[in-house]
Design a protein that fits this description.
Blueprint: H1 4-16, H2 18-25, H3 29-61, E1 75-79, E2 95-100, H4 106-115, E3 120-126, E4 140-146, H5 155-165, E5 166-177, H6 185-200, H7 210-216, E6 221-228, E7 238-245
Parallel strand pairs: 1-2, 1-4, 2-3, 4-5
Antiparallel strand pairs: 5-7, 6-7
Amino acid sequence: EASASVLLLRACLALLASPIYLLSFLGMWQPFCRKVFFPFILDKICVVHDKKSKKHKQELFRNLPDFRGPSGELRLLEIGTGSGSNFQFYPPGCKVTCTDINPSFQESLSRSMKKNQHLHYERVLVAAAEDLRQVPSGSVDAVVGTLVLCSVHSVSSTLREVLRVLRPGGAFYFLEHVAAEHSSWKYFWQQVCYPTWKLVFAGCCLTRELWKNLEEAKFSELKIQHISVALPWMPIEPHIVGYGVK
């Protein structure tokens, strides 16, 4: 329930961002955002986020080799790969399939691939996380998604697809920003920023309680940790990190 003060501050923020709202109304913001603004700004945010979350990611991906398939290979699918900032954490020889709904990341993705030659890149697919039909069922040992569940259209459909493509015993790794504690100032500001943030950052939702979606999905084992990744002036401090086993 958005209070009067939230609505008032939302209106002030919308006023500040009125040129973007106008471009959006004219149908010009979304294509510009997808092709130019979002890849550019995400690169910048990722540099800061990667520094702050590096320890958490090292810890998270440490047991990836445990999920190698019977053949001894590790087949990994990443959803919402973006510019490939997770590649550095994957074990040598890992076979990677990259997927992203936005083809405008190709350039920075190629740079990451050149930098991380310890991996085998099998395919780069332009696909929404809710629709991975190009990936056969039960064909991967691990799926990774970081900062991606905030902007998918349907979290539950995405998790259904993740479980479909994983082999039994395979694992889904995640690191996501989530809603803050409801009684906190952080949550108040998340509510204030919500509509403008979602417009500016290509559909990113600030107040998703993603741990609930993960608990509802059919994982046989689920490890979730609530952590804090503080980014200056950004309402995305509360995060969850962990993995679920099919």
